[in-house]
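JOB MANIFEST
job_type = single_chain_structure
chain_count = 1
residues = 159
[input]
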Amino acid sequence: MGFQGPLVTLRNEDGAREGHKYAVLPSETALAAFRDGARYPELEVVRRELLDWRLYHDFRTDAGSPVRQPCYAITTPTLSQDGHDLAAVLATLFVIRQDTLELANAIEDAFPGAHLQAGDEGSWCRLSLSFPDMPRPFGAHELSDGTLKYLCLLGALMG
């Protein structure tokens, strides 16, 4: 007959295994219940890594959305959860990292012949998308909701 109920086994700071019966509720995780980073350093490494993750499932794209506004021209490697720094993330790819091949390929796949631009104008960053059949580039405030969400996902994945 095996053990019934929650059991957590952790390695302590010396690498020895410690069993903790009933230390967590069935609905809890060891990450939530054990927060002693000095005693359980491997668990703390995992917790910190997961806390650094960002989940992007939707971006506001209404007329007042932060995604549609210019943002400060600051090197920005990671897109914020509300996307307010999208232009800065894309400008970082263009100007700082000079790494836009995958981005250009993703734009070409979605919008054949289109060309994305992102860069600074003084202390502000702006983005624009040019289409081959249009006489001028479109700024973020003019793009469709779907196009803007696509650009946000590219910024989140490639930033």
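[summary]
The mean pLDDT is 87.
Helices lie at 30-33, 41-52, 86-96, 101-110, 145-158.
exit_status = 0
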